[in-house]
Specification:
four-stranded antiparallel sheet; 153 residues; alpha+beta; five-stranded antiparallel sheet
Amino acid sequence: MRRAAFSLTELLVVISILILLVSLSSVAYYEKSDKDLLARESEDMVLWFYSVMTLANDEGSSFKLYVTQRESGEYELRAVYDGESYRSAKNIYTSSRVNIRNEGGSGIMTYNGKWQTMSPGLSLSIRSKKTGGGKLFLTVSVYGLVEIKHKLS
């Protein structure tokens, strides 16, 4: 005798397998997008650091780098060049896509364009705001070298 249709048990098994596959693929997609977001944001930060340092190097001047937390909870990086007031600073870096956190002790660093040194060094952690997942570290050494370091497992 031939069966004309699938049984209810067979349909439920197939549906549960499909739900499992969709949930696994969405997790993989979000993990990939978080990694891409962190990579893009950290590369943008590196470019920002190099641009403010290059400007100081070209002019032979210095700037103070302030790492402060806004009322909204976001951190901002503000480069204040010699002769410029904190409020009038034009080189400000903030992000609405990631959380930036100062992992070092001091909230004020000084960059000397003549000697191309940062004192003290700076270490920032970067996390996705969307999921809180992933973590990268961005460091600026006392010699002005900016590096992206992946979280150690």
